[in-house]
Amino acid sequence: MRDLNRALVLEVIRQEPGIGRADIAASTRLTAATITNIVGGLIGDGAVEESIDREVRATGQPVRSLHIIADYASTIGLHFDHEFATGVLVDVAGNVIHKMRQELSIEDPERAVQVLASLYNALYMHPGRVGKMLGVGVSVMGPIDGASGRVCQSAQYPAWREYGFRDALSQHIDHEIHIENNGTAAGLGEYWFGDGRHFGSYLHVSIGNGLGGALLVNRRAVRGLTGNGCEIGHVNAYRDGVPCFCGARGCLETIVSLRGLAHALGCEHIGDIDLNALDTGRSAAFERWIEQAGADLGRVLASVSNIVDVSDVIVNGMLPPEPLQRLVARARDGVAAYEMNGRPARIALHQGRADSEISAALGAATMPLYSNLF
User: Fold this and answer.
1) What's the CA gap between 31 and 29, in Å, rounded?
2) DSSP label at 88?
3) How confident is the prediction along the chain (374 residues), in pLDDT tens digits per residue?
4) DSSP class of residue 244?
5) 96 φ, ψ (degrees, to nearest 5)
6) Positive/negative CA dihedral, 331, 336, 338, 342
């Protein structure tokens, strides 16, 4: 409980720099005595500083404001997908010190671990790293077994099946490792580094090679029993659809993903698509994909929103801003056609603002600080 309360206070100070003790108590509903003890401990550890402003309240007491000391400590976030591994070095105030990207071969888990270890070593040795290293968060393609640190990949990559990922990575990293499903990690990245904190409760959709999802309720991620909650990409959207990467058939991500876009454009690989030329070319095949993908995404989002009773939806991903904006606009039409109209709040779709190339790694980087909160 003490660690939980400490993380809760840190969260509030990071989100509202300059906040005072009384406002922290009001926000967290912790007692004034508890806030005093926690803040005193954070100041003693060198994590937080308290300044006394010249302004004096009506009570005669000076205004005291709290700030996280950025160079108190650092964390590292790692993420990998089918083609690339990404790493970020972040200080405790949320500043991105450095980011890196490297190609990897997803078919070979041992080689993937070596690439991640290489990224970790480069980030750990980076001259801009500040303070002590609190830990490492890793965003992993699901499904995962969070308790054991295993990756339970589909039959498409048999070498990953029940692979002891955390144990293998710990042979190269001498810090605590936090494993997170990549959809949830991207949703947390939007919370800490995008607009998620302004909503508190939202669905997050990330369009990449596949389609990731996250559900946050009252600023906390809902992971389900095994850490694989909100796999929106694997909602069955097409009764007679094609086989999905996951091994099932007719999943939403067979269309709403970069893999789905590549197939629609007649490309064999995602790397064959010039993403930056999508909106300028405006090919008929791309227009058809925007129409179908947007409509299908909106239809599924309406159903999911009706189930979990969350009205705000943030959509982000690897599409460039203009095509993503068009996809979100078409999804709004799909939502309007299928949402339950009697609900007090209508579903609202928003375009994400976190850096989509590193959002999952950013979310992973917050885990050493806030894993007991989220």
Assistant:
1) 7
2) E
3) 678 899 899 999 998 999 999 999 999 999 999 999 999 999 999 999 999 865 555 555 677 899 999 999 999 999 998 888 999 999 999 999 999 999 988 889 999 999 999 999 999 999 999 999 999 999 998 788 877 888 876 667 888 888 899 999 999 999 999 999 999 999 999 999 998 988 989 999 999 989 999 999 998 899 888 888 899 999 999 998 999 888 899 999 999 999 999 999 999 888 888 888 887 767 899 999 999 999 999 999 999 999 999 999 999 999 999 999 999 999 999 999 999 888 888 999 999 998 888 999 999 999 998 876 55
4) P
5) -80, 115
6) positive
State pTM to two decimals: 0.89
Cα dist from 179 to 55, 82, 150, 221, 310, whole Å = 45, 17, 9, 14, 26
Residue with tokens 């070979």, as numbered in its chain:
108
Which domains are delineated in the chain? 2-68 (1.10.10.10), 71-187+360-370 (3.30.420.40), 196-353 (3.30.420.40)
